[in-house]
Please model this.
Amino acid sequence: MKAKDFDKKFDEGQDMSRHLDVAKARRPEQEQKRVNVDFPQWMVHSLDKEAKRLGVPRQSIIKVWVAERLGLQPSH
Model:
């Protein structure tokens, strides 16, 4: 299918998912990179307390707070 035909059908609201190969799809700039950070025990305790209060994992709290501090919107 030509790109213009694909675009036209997409713009018309047709489901184009059967025409896409998402097996190797990536989100640019969204690849994960593992980093190790050492926190004092009191900080981990406070993080865990807040994570439990919100019902989310500790890692989520850290990601959101770092993103806020950097002036970024966390991606989902």
The longest helix spans residues 41-54. The radius of gyration is 20 Å. The CA atoms of residues 3 and 57 lie 42 Å apart.
